[in-house]
Backbone:
């Protein structure tokens, strides 16, 4: 919720701290380095210690990153803030695929993930509006108007960590006395997994739009479409309408007709969304474009469900870490490339790049097999 309260203002906040679009892109490229740096140890840690410790560590690290954002006095301070925040965010990204793969059967996996997203989307739906109201209360779209959002996020992530520590009960999974060999342990993923190299290539390409679109749409909306904080909030909220109302039925349909088929059906809407954003002549179409962009939240969960079937359940943490590493390494230059396109060729070229990659996605997915690997205790 706290991320969605802030996300539509983050690139604007960096811009107000006197960063140009190329520098905003560079900041995010540097931030992605933290995701690459911790990916392998994160996957190993998740398999070794369990999701509860991963979740708590992730929340506390993101709280620290939010505090540094709040204290930033120049755009250069955004670099360590984003490094730390993305470190925490990537640290926690292993949890979903671990739980999905370990406790759900293949024929219920996509719907299970989408159900999780729907529950999460309920508070997230109001978060952008809350963010807009807070910004308005503190003076509008200015540095001092946006800064309090990060203090709220700091307090919120700390509170989440405390709640998880107190109420989440899980079996002890930490292994003691075993030799730690993080790098060699990942060889098992390639040995026992299916189409791992092809999946890593596909997943990396898919991550390019997911990386650059959230960075530049708020800046584009404010500078080119003259959106105020409430329109920015409405656009950010619109991203969650389709996941909220359609995630569960589409997840069930994906489990019934096939995850890849569902991905192919939804791909044209993913392709259309950034083009509508660029050419929208009215605020209604801007909101529609962002609503359609929410389809990507469903397709990314379909991808997660497919990924969970490519390796045995006991390797899901390592596979998630390896997946995060390859994705982070590939996208490192793309925020900078997006910023250079924005500054040197025109803001619309960022979204043309997103569209081009979206067209490639279903073509690349044809190379990945769709398996039906069961959860350990399921009966089929």
Residues:
């Amino acid at each position: 919720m706290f991320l969605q309260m802030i996300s539509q203002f983050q690139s604007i906040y960096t811009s107000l701290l006197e960063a140009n679009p190329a520098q905003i892109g560079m900041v995010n490229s540097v931030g992605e380095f933290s995701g690459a740096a911790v990916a392998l140890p994160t996957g190993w840690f998740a398999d070794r210690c369990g999701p509860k410790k991963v979740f708590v560590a992730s929340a506390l690290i993101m709280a620290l990153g939010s505090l540094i954002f709040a204290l930033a006095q120049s755009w250069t301070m955004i670099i360590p803030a984003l490094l730390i925040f993305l470190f925490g965010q990537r640290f926690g990204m292993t949890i979903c695929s671990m739980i999905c793969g370990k406790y759900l059967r293949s024929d219920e996996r996509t719907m299970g993930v989408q159900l999780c997203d729907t529950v999460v989307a309920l508070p997230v739906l109001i978060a952008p509006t809350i963010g807009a109201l807070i910004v308005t209360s503190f003076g509008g779209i200015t540095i001092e108007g946006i800064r309090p959002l990060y203090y709220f996020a700091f307090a919120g992530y700390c509170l989440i960590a405390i709640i998880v520590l107190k109420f989440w009960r899980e079996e002890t999974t930490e292994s003691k006395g075993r030799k730690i060999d993080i790098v060699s342990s990942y060889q098992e993923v390639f040995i026992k997994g299916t189409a791992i190299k092809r999946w890593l290539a596909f997943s990396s390409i898919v991550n390019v739009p997911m990386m650059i679109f959230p960075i530049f749409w708020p800046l584009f909306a404010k500078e080119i479409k003259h959106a105020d904080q409430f329109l920015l909030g409405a656009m950010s909220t619109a991203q969650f309408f389709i996941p909220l109302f359609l995630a569960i039925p589409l997840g069930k349909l994906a489990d019934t007709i096939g995850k890849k088929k569902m991905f192919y059906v939804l791909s044209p809407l993913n392709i259309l969304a950034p083009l509508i954003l660029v050419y929208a002549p009215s605020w209604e179409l801007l909101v529609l474009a962002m609503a359609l962009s929410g389809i990507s939240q469903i397709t990314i969960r379909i991808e997660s469900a497919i990924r969970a079937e490519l390796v045995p359940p006991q390797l899901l943490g390592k596979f998630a870490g390896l997946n995060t590493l390859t994705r982070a390494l590939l996208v490192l230059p793309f925020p900078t490339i997006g910023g250079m396109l924005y500054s040197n060729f025109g803001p619309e070229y960022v979204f043309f790049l997103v569209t081009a990659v979206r067209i490639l996605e279903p073509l690349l997915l044809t190379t990945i097999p769709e398996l039906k690997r069961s959860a350990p205790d399921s009966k089929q």
